[in-house]
Design brief:
alpha+beta, two-stranded antiparallel ribbon
């Protein structure tokens, strides 16, 4: 991770993740240092939520390892909470 860990950093996730109704299966760390945590459902304005980086770790402590190791412009996928992360390049589609 290029920037220092900031537990108060705002991140985007879904209301399902925030309310512990779904697990994070995709993480994006974009070129501006923003973080997005997806579940298997759709992410749109109605389903999105903004919480702190510490709150996402409190919801799922297994995310801390990917947060500390995922560089900018990368994304990580896993099939379920117990699966290994797979890392890929990330760029926004135009």
């Amino acid at each position: 991770m290029s920037e220092p860990f900031n537990p108060d950093l705002a991140v985007i996730t879904t209301k399902r993740v925030m309310h512990c109704q779904a697990n994070v299966c995709r993480v994006i760390h974009d070129d501006e240092g923003e973080w997005i945590f997806f579940d298997e459902g759709e992410l749109n304005v109605e389903s999105s939520a903004i919480i702190s980086l510490q709150e996402i770790i409190d919801i799922d402590p297994s995310l801390q390892s990917i947060i500390l190791s995922l560089p900018q412009n990368k994304q990580a996928f896993r099939l379920n909470k117990n699966s290994q992360w797979e890392i890929y390049d990330f760029t926004y589609e135009e």
